[in-house]
Write a structure and sequence with these properties.
The chain is α/β, with parallel strands linked by helices and about 210 residues long. It has 2 domains: about 80 residues, Methyltransferase, Methionine Synthase (B12-binding Domains), Chain A, domain 1 (Orthogonal Bundle); about 120 residues, 3-Layer(aba) Sandwich (Rossmann fold), CATH 3.40.50. About 55% of the residues lie in helices and about 10% in strands. It contains 9 helices and 5 strands. The protein has a 5-stranded parallel β-sheet with strand order 2-1-3-4-5, with helices on both faces. It is globular and about 50 Å long.
Amino acid sequence: MFEEIRHELEIGNAAGVKELVVKLLEESVLPKRILEEGLVSGMDLIGAKFRKNEVFIPEVMIAAKAMHAGLDVLNPHLAKSGVKPAGRILIGTVKGDLHDIGKNIVGMMFRGAGFEVVDCGIDVSPKSFVEALEKEAFDIVAMSSLLTTSMPFMDETLKLLKSEGLDLKVRTMVGGAPVTQDFAERIGASGYASDASQAVDKARELLGIVRV
């Protein structure tokens, strides 16, 4: 049935994914196993195909929506059984940038990989990122920029994190069309990803999560 879930995810059948998750729960399959061997495994396959250009953004978004249908059913059971997310990620598009499609796709992929994601939206100032991190504990803050004019705010955010003593408590990721590995290293970000699938891989790497 896990293989069926992966198939339904790939074709974006939200109702099918939901139905299979319900059936597995009724058969007393552990929620954690459903998450890891069904939903996360399925989204990993989508991510691998995306990297190989075998599927594209529309297919990824459809698969992610189907995954969310399964998660909506599964999440209460995960909470009751004490299963914790792979990590907590704060995500947002930096100040001066109103683009959100790429950010939203990355957020969907993070959730599909078992992370808890808090989206602070678009045009997020360095101060707003810091305030969010001061209110709640996060493992990673992921920043997106689609405009070269907004990229400096990534640098400003990292500098503010350091001045507030938060740089040792949270890892940082940057991405977006104009962002490069060189830029990420230059401003001192913990990691860089060129697309949503790589963002999941980098987040796992930063948190020491090994997928078999």
